[in-house]
Design brief:
By secondary structure, the chain is an all-alpha fold. It has helices spanning 5-29, 36-54, 74-88, 90-116, 127-134, 138-161, 166-190, 197-209, 212-226; strands at residues 58-60, 66-68.
């Protein structure tokens, strides 16, 4: 691990969050709250799509642990889903997650259609590299979509049901959702492929849990800037 890996990771995660949340803050200050729902949902979809591509690069973390670069978007995507769920209700949160899952499947299909298209003569030497970066095996894709759908749906449920402030809501819901995601994703994607699947799951959890403080900070900033926090009526 290079000495700047950890501060780089946290700085990049915070910068990513500010970049996508800034437009929501601007809309709120301009009294255009009617645009917050569609823009917030688009932000969430964008973050998930970007993370799917960025995860093809694996970076150093601590000791033997490594981290997919898609985690740069993690805190920002949690803050967006928190905003959509608490401001517009659990039903909206569920639908955003379902639509996001559908779009990830669509992206996977389009990727493989593009990869399978015959390259131009001058591009042929780059085809292998392109396919390695953009292509995702069917098993990993299925694991990713399944884990995402289950963990994010449960996260919406917890965030909309738990009372209290940021510490209680995000501090409880986030680790639970991350654990579910790891327990679903790792066995589907790597069982029979990785020798020590339990070590791999433990490594992933350590990396994800290390981002919880950053996620809590992002959610706190978002709630202060957009003035939301609690659902007063139970969503059906």
């Amino acid at each position: 691990m290079t000495w700047y890996a950890i501060p780089y990771l946290y700085s990049a995660a915070l910068a990513t969050y500010i970049a996508v949340a800034g437009i929501l803050w601007a809309l709120h200050r301009l009294n255009r709250d009617d645009l917050l729902l569609p823009v917030g949902a688009m932000n969430y979809m964008l973050l998930l799509t970007v993370s799917q591509y960025m995860a093809s690069k694996i970076g150093a973390f601590v000791g033997p642990f490594v981290i997919p670069m898609g985690v740069f978007t993690y805190s920002a995507s949690v803050a967006m889903l928190d905003f959509l769920t608490l401001k517009y209700g659990r039903r909206v949160g569920y639908w955003v997650v379902r639509i996001a899952a559908y779009l990830q499947v669509l992206i996977f299909i389009i990727n493989w259609l593009v990869i399978g298209y015959p390259p131009a003569t001058f591009w042929a030497s780059l085809q292998g590299s392109f396919a390695n970066i953009m292509g995702v095996s069917a098993r990993v894709a299925i694991a990713s979509i399944t884990a995402f759908l289950i963990s994010e749906t449960y996260d919406v449920f917890l965030v909309s049901r738990l009372g209290g402030g940021v510490l209680r809501r995000v501090g409880y819901s986030d680790p639970v959702a991350m654990t579910i995601d790891t327990l679903v994703f790792i066995p589907i994607a790597f069982y029979g492929v990785v020798p020590n699947i339990w070590l791999l799951m433990a490594s992933q959890l350590v990396v994800k849990l290390s981002l919880v403080p950053m996620t809590m900070l992002a959610v706190w900033i978002n709630r202060k800037a957009l003035q939301y926090g609690y659902i007063t009526a139970k969503s059906p």
